[in-house]
Amino acid sequence: MGAHSIGPRMDTMTLWNISTGGFAALAFAALLVGFSKTAVSGANTVSLAVFAAVLPARASTGVLLPLLIVGDVLAVLTYRRHAHWPTLWRLFPAVGVGVVFGTLFLVWADDEIVRTSIGAILLMMVAVTLWRRRTVDKDDEPDAVTTRAGRAKARSYGVLGGFTTMVANAGGPVMSMYLLSAGFRKLGFLGTSAFFFLIVNVSKVPFSVGLGLIDGSSLLLDAALALFVLPGALLGKWAVSRINQRVFEQLVIAATVVGGLQLLLR
Asked: How does it sit in the membrane (predicted)?
């Protein structure tokens, strides 16, 4: 074994010492990944916390990423007609910067620092969004990216989203908060975030492989857990047409708060 493979090998031992209860928790979290991608974005912060509880925090991000990509593909197939591309093009350069920062942070940070940082960022995003929503006209079209303040906001959320998505696959809540604050309605929100995360998550794969977070054993675990993402996505698609806009927004914010608190309090 070369020196490089010691870290992943330790992770592999941990991955395969999962109890039946632990696997059941991961399966439920995988189901939630599918549900969050087609219904309540932000619900996968709960998945993120479950994965970080059952597996080491760093290793959990490598196992979760391919499952998120499966969910992203299902979400794009479901909501592709509702994406708002001007918003996406505005966000991508800033997200790229955030992903690079996140990769450098992972080279340096341990599990404890990773968890606490993400939890704190999520709760901060909720606070900012709740404050902003008191001043936003709900019926505005999501064209706020055309103003100077809108562009600055898109850049700052983009960098934060790229950073959190690289460090802990926790970009969902950051983007949820951005899209809600920009006045997106339910289907536009889901369509725009579906394309956003498919593109961003696929672009993170080489970084994660380079950091040793994705390897053969993590992909074997993914193969078993991916079976649970599809029923979650179908459940989400069924539920979303039955949730009104106000309840939808409240669920997104509540899921984000729960995920942030779980990470901070562990």
From this structure: Multi-pass membrane protein
Identify the CA nearest to 44 among candidates 219, 188, 168, 227.
Answer: 168
For residue 90, give every residue at least 6 positions away whose Cβ sits within 8 Å of its Cβ, in sequence order, or none.
Answer: 145, 151, 154, 158
The pLDDT tens digits for 60-118 are 889 999 999 999 999 999 999 999 999 999 899 999 999 999 999 988 888 788 778 87
Closest alpha carbon to 51 in 70, 32, 76: 32
- 67: Cβ contacts below 8 Å, ≥ 6 apart: 30, 33, 222, 225, 226, 229
265 burial level (CB within 10 Å; 0-12, 13-18, 19+) = exposed
Q: In angstroms, how far is CA 20 from the centroid of its own chain? A: 26
Query: What is the Rg, in whole angstroms, of the alpha carbon atoms belonging to the chain?
Result: 17
**DSSP-based three-state secondary structure for 28:** helix
With the CA atoms of 34, 240, 194 and 116 taken in that order, what torsion angle do they form, in degrees rounded to the nearest 10? -60
pTM of the model: 0.80
Tokens of 27: 């399966």
